[in-house]
Fold each of these.
Amino acid sequence: MAFPSVDGFATMLVEQYRMNELIMQWSSHELYHDRLVAHGSVASATLGDLGKFPPEITSPLLFVDTAGALMYEEVEDSKGITESKFNYGETDLVVQVVNELLTEGISCEHIGVISPYSAQVTEIRKALRKDGQLRGIEVSTVDGFQGREKEIIIISMVRSNPTNTIGFLSNERRMNVAVTRAKKLCVLIGDSATVGKNTFLKSLCDYFMCNG
């Protein structure tokens, strides 16, 4: 990030104190020319610092790829207003991941769920409320989480369609914000066949596949 200094020039803050180094590195490479550095106090931070470490998770990165699962997006009935997208399949996966984390002793307050689409935020909140797990778990859009952080962030990308259309999901700033809200674990849920048609998002999926 760049901030104006007293002499009028912009200064980039290259050392970050929020997230595990693996969570940081994709953002650093794609947007900051590999200049970001993780402070030693957070570079190797994992869920083990919170107590139990889920045995299925051995990395701060987890990609749940829905390619080929036919979990297609849907469009909310907005009565002529700008249409937002949602995805029932990804909503179910969010609930599954949340329940696995809670089973392993992770507290609700440490979990945040982000989606670029307000309709998906609504669906996830409904599903977690029905499952009895909404209390303490924050679910919001990318913009709603800007400036915030959680030990664990689950991202629902939503877009999955035969034409590989991703809409404003291609907004690089928003996806960067979503990923970098996570401190110790970032879970990405999405259809690599659809979002992977975008070069920037393909780099994100590939990075999670190689390092998660």
Amino acid sequence: VDLIAPSIVMMPDYYIQQMKEYGYEVRLFDSLDEYIASKHCATIWYFTRLQIERLGDDILQYEGKLREAITIQKEQLHALDNALDTSQLIFFHPLPRHKIYPEIPSFLDDTPLNGREKQSINGYFMRIILLAACA
């Protein structure tokens, strides 16, 4: 499991320790640049929205740097070509993505990297099944 986030918003140590106890190898990275430079990148990426509004006023001063660390950029895609077989690479996101600062920018919407469409369709059908089971 590769976790990518600046330490100020990284997953709490408790959860990381729990993953390790269950036998997962957990690697921590401060930014996408650092992760891509490792040249050992996964082919399935799951982004989550940086929820600054839930982190308190102290974090607001770091917002720009935090967003920069976890937002995929065009230049990084070229570096990814050297790190893995990008024909297998896919990006997921739980949606909604931030309107102004999306972690997966809109320039990727019409590319094979976009896994959000299939993910949201599957989520839609899963909710229908769950609602039908409750009826």
Amino acid sequence: MKDLKDTRLEINDIDSKMRDLFVRRMELVKEVAEYKKELGLQIFDKERERQVVERNVEQVNNPELKPYYVEFINNTMKVSRDFQRNLIKGMKVSFSGVKGAYAYIASRKLFPNAELVERPNFKSAYDAVSNGEVDVAVLPIENSYAGDVGLVNDLMFTGNLYLTDIFDLEIVHNLIVKKGANIKQIKKVVSHQQALSQCHDFIEDYAFETEEYPNTAMAAQALAEGNDTTVAVIASKEVAELYEGLEIIKENINDSRLNTTRFGVFSRCMAEPHKSKMGDHFILMFTVANEAGALATTLNIIGSHGFNMRTLRSRPLKELLWSYYFFAELDGDVTTRDAKEMLQELSTVCDCLKVAGTYYTGEKK
């Protein structure tokens, strides 16, 4: 039988090697954290961690040890996540609006440890990233009820940032008033134009007057600072919790119960594809000559290389009357040979061609 002292010496030697490997692993984790911070990517990537566990547990030949190894590697990755969160605490994220705005809620869910920086509009939030004031911006790009957010699409087309992630936030509108007010007192509702349109039926039922405001939370902030009990705002429940003196008197007043806004994360660098079989997407923005068949030729090139187009929409060019640019979301990896050949072909028929970003839609939480 092996002497216990010798066994412990061997364990000590293994522990020493594991210590050195741990230090090296965490040094690499720091590089990952810096990459995620620069691109505005979430720390917890569930798909990536699942792949790590599956790939490595197969190499554990002793079936008795497999469950313990799974626990070991999961704990190791948890330590790595905690370390990354600590490193990214100094991250700055800009959004349009004030605390309680839906962009604020999305930013907080995406980057719970970051410093959130308020900006009065989409462009100033976007520019804060471009000029290096903040690391990333979180901006709405599309609503399931009201359609695309044209101003943000225009920034994507003309600006120098890349979309690196997509986050879907369910939008639940509520009627918020000064504490003590009742619905019979309300004569006017104030909110962002899209929120008003998304609650059109409710507003019509009560015959309220309406007034547009740049942002739902800004409207609530103004109501909280005033004393008017005849005005209500349409906003999130977080707003009623953030601003003193407000309360919700009607919940979930959306016309549609399927109301979701897609928020994009914008960074100065493009994200690398996820390298999985499913879930990778990229965005193309382009213009074509104003002549018969030009758009069809572009779409045929995309199809001939096997890329499925999830979305295609157009927006007017500000500089040219009755001219448009196109926004297309494609499934797949933009770094493959097929994608590179497709982009090369497109460059010969598109007056302007831009890869505006890549993102992954697999389960990340």
Amino acid sequence: MAPERTPPAGHPIDEDGARQLVAGAYGDACRRFVQGCCGPLYWWRVDTAEREIVSNGTVTFVETPQRILGITAAHVIRSYESAAADAAVRLQLGDAIIDDLPQRLIQISDTLDLATFALDQSVLTSIGRPAAPITLWPPKRPHEGYGIMLGGYPGQERDIDQPLNVTFGLFTALGIARMVSDDQITWLVERDFEVESASVPSMPSHYDLGGISGGPLITTIENPTNFVTFRLGGIISEAHAEFEYVIAKCGDLISADGTIAQS
């Protein structure tokens, strides 16, 4: 169990004030940040009149000192590859068509469940909404018991009113890192400690988060002057509805060129 977090001496915000902040402007800022740094990756059948969407995941956008990266879970890419081997499918990142994924791929680690591929500004501007890659580098994993936020695009929030007219609903959550190991971070839904926010509402009980794999887990860093910055902490790998927890792989396993450690 992580130790209880206590603010530093002289911190201007007490616990009640912090909860009000999260429920208001802070919650809004968190959601905007997550919305800008990730997008839905999905693939659909081109050989059927219905243009059936086979599945979807989430991609996190990062701009390192060396290149712009798309980062997702390895099993998302493997699922697309399996579908593409069996049927004619098209891959999209939002509105942007990705016909050259094999050429863009940098590395896939099935062991760590991480995959990286090259992005460029032309893809980001074609997604259909503003994209703002995370620019603070390198990633920094959170400390146990300290604040994080996370997000992605659950499949059940996908709305299709006609073939290929698709809207993806963004899921975001504020919480604390419950466990941090050598390669992963665990977030638990702790109902007794939830903070209600109009912009970041409480997650429904046993909510199906399938589709958020590849989404960002963000470390919130507070400096000695109480200024908060957001940094990539991890990439979501697993989401369990029944037991209400999410596991993310640590982002610092990824190098600035997109290669993955221990793969």
